[in-house]
Amino acid sequence: MQKTPRTFKYIDNNAFIGGVKIQQLIEKFKTPLYVLDQKTIEENCQHFMDPLKKNYPNSEVLYAGKANLNIAIAQLINSLGLSLDVSSGGELYTAIKAKVSPEKIYFHGNNKTHEELELALDYGVTVMLDNLQELENIIKLHTSAKLISIIIRLKPEIDAHTHKYIRTGQLDSKFGIDRKQAYEIIKKIVDHPKLKLAGIHSHIGSQIFDKAPFFELIDILVPYIKQIKDEFGIELEVLNCGGGMGIYYSDKDNPLQITEFITDFCLKLKEKCHQEKIALPKLLFEPGRSIVGSAGITLYKVGAIKEIEGIKTYLFVDGGMADNPRPILYQAKHVFGTVIKRNKITKKYSIAGKFCESGDILAENISLEEVNVGDYIIVFATGAYNYSMASNYNRNCRPAMVLVANKKAKVIVKRESYGDLTRLDIEI
Ligand code: LLP
């Protein structure tokens, strides 16, 4: 089970990542700082790609950009042979800027605006259809001669056991079309000369540790492909099984071994298709967290230590809920460490951020090696859903992001400045 980025280690009590001394990263780029380990991202991609190549070559892995997207990450992902799942005009624009070709982009969203749809239709990406209104909007806006590929997002009606905010497969979810209603939509697409029904998609939720709900998806979607074949005489080419594979954040997490899981999944899918007598569809997965989550760390400086006698000791850091909203949103847990190991005494700390919100606590009563004001601490597994959900609360600047590989560090997102914060303001 991967607990720290692949290349993270202590040498002579100094933490290193990607062959770079973390203390040097701090001196050069300041804190708070997001650091991404390229090697971990590469290996996480291989965990999906290698077993697919071996067991199910007609497949594609889409990185879910919502986990963490900028031009450099899109370029890296593209160079590693993955495609991209985008879920807003902004993510799509980032992918276009990174020169990801349209056939490698899949556009999600439950309420795509007309402007977003126009951009998607113009660039010629595959649209992941969420509802009937969206289809009507596409038909109205699609004026060119291009053939637009559509994959419909179905509600699998599987209740995955994860935090209620990140469950998406159940019937009352805001995402997707329920299987009964999908017939009307399928008919409309099939009858339209400039639309192509490429396949179906389902995503059951996020941070899932159990294989069972993924396997259940096969039992639901493959017979559904068969039903569509019987009803409309078309055999869908693509089966997209979403993302959602959980990662290790703390000791309560027991993630799937991806290589083994994918291998088992392919076997089960092949069996089910054989049983239902349908041709093997192209298999797509769209993981986000399991590609970048474990690759990221956040570095903070300890600005003050406040001891409340007999109750707790707060350790104040120079970031918090605005750069990592997961603890306040989902009660997420993290592992913490120090940049330099000075002594072996551990103490209990509550790690609090600098934002004006009592809930801005990154961890309650955790054991950490004793630190002093001015020391630096590390939070592990912050590569996913940290920067992408970061805010400027209290008019704080969002941190920079650095990519490390082969003993080199490169800034891939600059630190915001006060000028950036007021850039869009207009005086009265
Ligand atoms: N595909 C679809 C359609 C999705 O909605 C998502 C995530 C993914 C793929 C990627 O899921 P992943 O492999 O990253 O679990 N902010 C929350 C997570 C929200 C996930 C939204 N959808 C968090 O920080 O836990």
What would you note in describing this structure?
With 428 residues, the protein is an alpha/beta fold. The protein contains 12 helices and 21 strands. Strands 4, 14, 15, 16, 17, 18, 19, 20 and 21 form a 9-stranded mixed sheet that branches. Strands 5-6-7-8-9-11-12-13 form an 8-stranded parallel barrel, surrounded by 5 helices. Strands 1-2-3 form a 3-stranded antiparallel sheet. Helix 2 (38-55) runs parallel beside helix 9 (258-276), helix 4 packs parallel to helix 5 (114-123) and helix 8 packs parallel to helix 9. It is globular, with a radius of gyration of 23 Å. 44% of the residues are buried. The mean pLDDT is 95. The structure holds ligand LLP. Residues 64, 66-67, 85, 108, 166, 168, 203, 206-207, 242-245, 286-290, 326, 330, 385, 389 line the site of ligand LLP. The site of ligand LLP has 23 residues, from helix 10 and helix 11.
Which key terms come to mind for this protein?
single chain, 428 residues, alpha/beta, 9-stranded mixed beta sheet, 8-stranded parallel barrel, 12 helices, globular, binds ligand LLP
Major sheet characteristics = 9 strands, mixed
Helicity range: 25-40%
Count of DSSP H/I helices: 12
Distance between the termini: 56 Å
List the helices and strands and how they pair.
Blueprint lengths: L8 E3 L2 E4 L2 E2 H8 L3 E5 H18 L3 E6 L6 H9 L3 E4 L2 H9 L7 E3 L6 H10 L2 E4 L2 H10 L6 E8 L21 E2 L3 H10 L3 E7 L10 H21 L5 E3 L17 H19 L5 E4 L3 H4 L3 E13 L3 E6 L8 H5 L5 E3 L7 E7 L8 E9 L6 E5 L19 E6 L2 E6 L4 H5 L6
Parallel strand pairs: 4-20, 5-6, 5-13, 6-7, 7-8, 8-9, 9-10, 9-11, 11-12, 12-13, 15-17
Antiparallel strand pairs: 1-2, 2-3, 4-14, 14-15, 14-19, 16-19, 17-18, 20-21
Helix pairs in contact: 2-9, 4-5, 8-9
The structure holds ligand LLP.
